[in-house]
């Protein structure tokens, strides 16, 4: 066991090969052994680049112009061999599924130990221990692919932690998790911090969970330059306004109403019901869907959504939210029961007509892109007037076509991809807008832009349904005119 | 088809499950090569039957599971046989012995023999493959390739990780097709689907390679968490399998 090591960055700047501007500019920071450093910044501020650089992956695996140094103890990780860097630093990435190498949980935890040539007896002792520490005791023979997202991420964390790294880097570890999964992961991080076994670097948007854990905060601006570095309370006092201006999430003074403390609160405190005589856009009766025969992903669903209504659909991963959205938009055919979109069976509507009735923003927007440039992507299926309206929409979303039109949709940041996807979904003024996790990984500015656009929908005479893990967003949707909050569990609407 | 076969405890603990995957792989290869030396329907039929019986008894595979594993491909075997029976050139050969007449079709013994031979051969390949897949954990196969077969670890574990990503890629493809529909594009296959899928696959592979490197993969000598050594089972299954092959061919 190596024990925690101090971390020091001096004059770190980096520009990815082919990028127009640097990702990081002149970073300096020092973290004492065993402390927790929280890195915050708006989308595209280079937070992930900092994480990769501390793990020695930038510049080794990502070509570009590098200057400065990052030291872990006395080792300069930016020029160290992969073996030396990996011996000291462990890194957990955002997407749990693309970090699991082996089939079974215990084999995956052992993978990092095998690579360091641990002895078999030591591995047999350490693997179950690391699993138990991550709250996965008894999961030894389970398959990684059959765990929930939250369990997968804790399994990946167990694998990264097993060899006792001196520095543990976590790059947005909860971005893909539901609230329960995020809380469980943070509980584990709190234990790790108390043990002071590793120095921890955390990149995270969830301010309410992350700030209380931090000993130090490094704030970056949209250009990758440091805004401030210091103790969380000092940073908030010194630079709170600046951080807010940059669109960085800050911890809320008391938790916002309708947040985790008050689940279900939004349902009855919901805003004004939509006019009962407004035209019905979606109507579902006895709706049921099975991916595997006999296993219902959605069951006994009755729902009516009228023009001007906005529905926030919440519930844990796997509760059937995404399936409901796909059934409403005619992307899946119900196993039993019926659903109507504008009075028609959505699964049978011809695609060109369907596109005018419903717009869909997928959880992973990249899967929905059809063109090579942002400009072409926006213009698909639109006439000149539609293109002009779409261009105006992009402007409102902070992505003017003048700057973004020629870029590849695949090379945008995650937050930008999602906003582009919203623009393509709204461009045809569909009567139903369907959003799957619209605020995932958005900084505050992106979040507010999204909320404003949804506010505008009601007056346009469309309806909206959004599946979300973001309680703040669900509360905002439910509070407005025509807003509702529905909760799902195990395929049922339970509240 | 894309989900890794989730082999049960009974299968993994059985004689075949405990045999080195390399022995099974070698044996399967020997059987298939052996079949090249005969056109008779007999030997492949015997080998197919032997594989199924071994799978059920020595492999602990539940019959319903085995049936599920090879039902779709057995249909292919029947199709191959039927096509060759109906459309064989020897049916038109006046010198060939007539076996039966179905309406305007004349079926000959020669055609029936060839058709039976081909069908039995496809059936044998399918049975051997199904029994292998149903008694072999993918991770154990990779361990054996690396530890016993001296395959390069980077290649072998990389392939295992990629194999695990297949179900996810299938899900991605479904979503890509849904995304096209909701944007007003008609269904069916389009080159763009492959572009989108390729972007995903490459991105996933990059991310995985990065995660593996960050976990010190390939940084020096490795140890192993699941040591495999040769044992009596390997000898018994190897010798037994070759004996069956010999008996089938020399019968």
What does this structure look like?
The complex is a heterodimer of chains A (495) and B (251). With 495 residues, chain A is of the alpha/beta class. Chain A is built from 18 helices and 19 strands. In chain A, a hairpin with a 5-residue loop joins β9 (216-220) and β10. Chain B is mainly alpha-helical. Chain B has a two-stranded antiparallel sheet. In chain B, α4 (42-57) runs antiparallel to α10.
Secondary structure elements and pairings:
The complex is a heterodimer of chains A (495) and B (251).
Chain A: E1 7-16, E2 24-31, E3 36-40, H1 47-54, H2 57-60, E4 64-72, E5 75-76, H3 82-88, E6 89-92, H4 105-115, H5 120-133, H6 149-161, E7 167-171, H7 179-195, E8 199-203, H8 207-210, E9 216-220, E10 226-230, H9 232-245, H10 265-268, E11 280-292, E12 295-306, E13 310-314, H11 321-328, E14 336-341, H12 351-357, E15 358-361, H13 374-379, H14 384-396, H15 401-404, H16 414-426, E16 432-436, H17 444-459, E17 463-467, H18 471-479, E18 483-489, E19 492-493
Parallel strand pairs in A: 3-8, 3-9, 6-7, 7-8, 13-17, 13-18, 15-16, 16-17
Antiparallel strand pairs in A: 1-2, 1-4, 4-5, 9-10, 11-12, 11-14, 18-19
Helix pairs in contact in A: 4-5, 4-6, 5-6, 6-7
Chain B: H1 9-13, H2 15-18, H3 21-35, H4 42-57, H5 63-87, E1 98-102, E2 105-108, H6 109-135, H7 138-147, H8 153-182, H9 191-214, H10 232-250
Antiparallel strand pairs in B: 1-2
Helix pairs in contact in B: 3-6, 3-10, 4-6, 4-10, 5-6, 7-8, 8-9
Shape of chain B: flat
Q: What number of domains of chain B? A: 2
Q: How large, in whole angstroms, is the Cα Rg of chain A? A: 24 Å
First and last CA, distance of chain A: 49 Å
Q: Order of strands side by side in the largest beta sheet of chain A?
A: 6-7-8-3-9-10
Largest sheet of chain B: 2 strands, antiparallel
The most extensive interface, with participating residues per chain, is: A-B, 67 and 50 residues
Bin the helical content of chain B. 55-70%
